[in-house]
Amino acid sequence: MSAVEIICKNCGADTLLKREAVYDGFTKTGEKLTCSGCGFEYASESEVPFKAKKAEPVIFTAADRSAKVDVFDKGENRRLCRYCANYIVNPFTQFCSVRKKEVQATDTCSQFKLNSGETGKPVL
Ligand SMILES: [Zn+2]
Question: Which of 93, 111, 113, 119 is the most buried (most CB within 10 A)?
Fold first, then answer.
């Protein structure tokens, strides 16, 4: 039986729910849900003041995305293909003239050569 945390609405304690099977002879007729602190009995599962679980962290929010861009602003962008002299972009593709392959603006490359005229700052 796993411990279920509740905030008891009777005694107000941050405590555990006690779940006991109720038998009529040998037949399980239901469950008795009580506060392990004060013994208050809840009529049904929907009455139980379950302690709210911590919200799952939201991994990709708009704020996080802009935070990542900020990280790039602090130096990493110096090696991004989009700032490279060998980065060729046209409406159909982005291409590295050194590696002779299609690249993404956010790729990084060991043969990076800063495009003169680029400050390394992202163009907004
Ligand atoms: Zn209680």
Answer: 113
- Cα separation, 62 vs 19, in Å, equals 42
Q: Compute, in angstroms, the gap from residue 42 CA to the centroid of ligand 1.
A: 10
pTM: 0.41
Phi, psi of 80 (to 5 degrees): -75, 140
Compute the distance from residue 22 Cα to the ligand 1 centre, in Å: 20
How many other CB atoms are there within 10 angstroms of residue 25's CB atom? 6
Query: Is the pLDDT confidence value at 119 over 80?
Result: no
Residue 69 has pLDDT above 60, yes or no: no
